[in-house]
Specification:
With 274 residues, the chain is of the alpha/beta class. It is built from 14 helices and eight strands. Helix 1 packs parallel to helix 3 and helix 6 crosses helix 7.
Length: 274
């Protein structure tokens, strides 16, 4: 099953839609499709802007698939950066000579939040967007190092609140913290993002790419800060305590279209059956 579908609304403007039922988990197949798509974005001379959205109004990208085949994950070959494909995708997307926009309706947590943070711009539904980094609530280190990107967007204190509190941030609060670029009324989100993308698609690509590169130079964290944190993530998820917390949440409904996933920020702090 294809997890990312592409459409081309206008010259220079690509639109990518996530579709991985039941809740848009980021699994190895999704990572491989993202990897291939970033390669296309880097090499196509005509694309100027891409919008990422979800076919599921409740989940933009839920989070990493904690039940994914660990052997397959370990065997994934490094990308052009020399790093694990998940880290590679986010580094290359952030530095690609195009403008990437996350149009967030529904939940973007964990790796889903990390992907959104790697995009250049994040526009969110004020009523329906929910972002969060819940990993510490399970006893794990957030693997994609969202801390490095959030620190530049939200500042130290708010970054610590987001990652250590492991709670949910609705669209308006995420906007106030700098977690998202702007929160819009839900019925205005798609039209606003489409107008903005079409506007950018009408500009000169070289001017867009060169200007973005200058901003990247003074705002993006060094690429080298990401791989060690992914290693810490894998180590932390192997601990008995973390496995026990994850297993408890899985029994309660994690990774299913359940009350646990809809209200994950509260549920990572709740007591579940042992």
């Amino acid at each position: 099953m294809q997890r990312i579908s592409l459409s081309f609304p206008a010259p220079g403007y690509w639109h990518a839609t996530f579709r991985n039922p039941p809740i848009n988990l980021i699994d190895p197949d999704m990572i491989e499709e993202m990897f291939d798509l970033v390669g296309r974005l880097e090499s196509d001379p005509d694309v100027k802007v891409i919008v990422f959205a979800s076919a599921d109004p409740d989940f933009f990208l839920a989070h990493y698939d904690v039940l994914a085949d660990k052997a397959r994950i370990a065997a994934m070959q490094p990308g052009p950066t020399g790093y694990h494909p998940w880290i590679d995708v986010m580094i290359r997307l952030a530095r690609a000579p195009i403008v990437s926009i996350a149009s967030i309706r529904g939940r973007a947590r964990g790796a889903g939040s990390e992907f959104a943070l790697a995009c250049d711009l994040r526009f969110a539904s004020a009523e329906k967007a929910v972002l969060g980094q819940f990993e510490v609530g399970l006893g794990a280190v957030p693997g994609g190092n969202p801390m490095a990107r959030l620190a530049g967007l939200a500042g130290r204190g708010r970054t610590l609140e987001i990652v250590l509190g492991a709670d949910d941030f609705p669209g308006p609060l995420a906007e106030r913290y700098g977690y998202v670029t702007r929160a819009l009324q839900d019925d205005e989100l798609e039209a606003f993002v489409d107008r903005f993308a079409r506007r950018i698609a009408g500009f000169d690509k070289r001017a867009l790419a060169e200007t973005k590169s200058i901003v990247d130079d003074v705002t993006l964290p060094p690429d080298t800060v990401f791989p060690p944190v992914l290693a810490q993530f894998f180590q932390s998820t192997a601990r008995d305590e973390t496995r026990a917390r994850s297993a408890s949440l899985l029994r309660a409904g994690l990774q299913r279209r359940s009350a646990v996933e809809f209200d994950l920020g509260r549920n990572v702090a709740a007591k579940h059956d042992a």
